[in-house]
Amino acid sequence: MSLFMSTEKGKQLIVSKCQNCGKIYFPIRKNCPDCLNKGKIENIPLSQRGKLYSYSVTYTKPLVKGVVEPPYANGIIEFPEGFKLFAILRDVEPLDDPSMQKRIGTEFEIMSDANICKKCKTRYFPAVTECSNCGAEGQLEEIRNNYYVFRPVKD
Amino acid sequence: MREVAIIGAGMTKFGKHTRRAFDDLGAEACQKALDSAKVDRKDIQAGYCGTTGGVGAMHQTLRNIGILGIPISRVENGCATGSTCLREAYISIASGLFDLVIAMGIEKMYGASMGEVTGSQVAILLDMKAVDLDAKLMSFGAVSLPGVFALMANRHCYQYGTTYEQIAQVAVKNHNNGAKNPNAQHQKERTLEEIMDPNTPDNKLISTPLTKLQCCPITDGAAAIILASEDIAKKYTDSPVYIAASYQVSSASEYPTEDWLSFEQTRRCAKGAYQMAGIEPKDITLAAVHDCFSPAELIHYEDLGFCKKGEGGKMIEEGETELNGRVSVNTDGGLLARGHPLGATGIAMTAEIFWQFQGEAEKRQVDTIKYALQQNMGWPAAGLSQLIHIFKQK
Q1: Which residue of A has its CA nearest to B131?
Q2: Of A125, B39, B71, B285, which has the fewest Cβ atoms less than 10 A away?
Q3: What percent of chain B has a predicted confidence (pLDDT) above 70?
Q4: Between vectors from CA A108 to CA A104 and to CA A111, what angle results, nearest 5°?
Q5: A28 within a domain of the structure (yes/no)
């Protein structure tokens, strides 16, 4: 199963939207458990940006290896589609401070590209532009992955 | 449906029991329950067991104490396993099938991973070729369970002005109640500073604002109760504790909550339970609620109707849920201090309510009880299981 689809905007998370009741499901599913087959269910790309709905900092290992090392920020992202998603957050500085609730409502965007250095085979998530292991430039190749994190939007 | 009563209860001390086998822990809890009810083991007609990891534990336990030949069943329902076991035992008597039944909850959690204890590790192995596990975990953001409750807590603070101190106060209350319970895993009184300070030898930050002392521990233990039909119950005791309501629901949608400020299952389950018992939330004066992490207890106050939405923080701060408060909540220390051996929790909650009604809760005894409520929540991989039982005396 892939969590993403490729669009002109890049990689986007795929969600299923029930055309009858409007409910959104992630990951995708074949029918809407709420109204079953009364409406068609369609797979659509989820917006790449959403607003932070809640925020926390976790000091234990995440459930998936290779995404982030503890401590790390995590949050709930609310999308314009009205859908909420749990996510690991990156590039949040300072990580843990008493005013962390002030971040609620600010915009975050998805990072989902991973790559590998063809020379030394080091894998990177999120993707890098230069291999920090062997220093090789122009040797990086995109690889398929199901990881995603969100980072603050810097406009 | 016939009236069903609890007539006896027993449990092991909750804690670390790596050197005691399932049948040893189980036998202690079951024997204590039989002794408490003054029931001859030969009169027990069926055995129900709640456990996620203790496969075959009830067969081994009952063989160990000479209860042979009766039907034995095991149920599993995530962290609500114990209460699901209680409900199955209740239904078996209410339906008229049996008159005298033993229900045991048991778990051993030390020495195995959470995935192994809950059986999800086995499910993952069997599903290995069918699903992409990383994708499955990422679809939930790879967020840990304490992480989910920490995010709920922070949104609650943002939305309603709840404070980290109010959230931590839940753990202060429950640890202090645990200090009065000889069967509790943690029996040490704690100050607000101790609960909130991550820089002490027995505390650390897990997920802001949750410190380790605000998260339920890993626990081994067993608890058992004896249930009887009304006629039979009266032969054994003058003070049976009747089950006024037994209600169970699971999630009505893909996600357990829309706004992560409340559990719709708790609200729906509570409504059904109050209706079945013919009472209102204000009639509850004693409650055992599912405080897996400190913010959960505050959210349950609201969802159970003990206070208005958003006022859980105020309710704990004003001491309304302390021993002999308006509703005494988690008098035995709750999941946080008594401990949370998954399958045993719901039965231990029921045992505490039984002892409180009998006046046997010693230092943590409440003065009077009108109705008592027990709420147990499970999260078996997809959607929530929710069970509420209400108890009364006649």
Answers
A1: A1
A2: B71
A3: 99
A4: 145
A5: yes
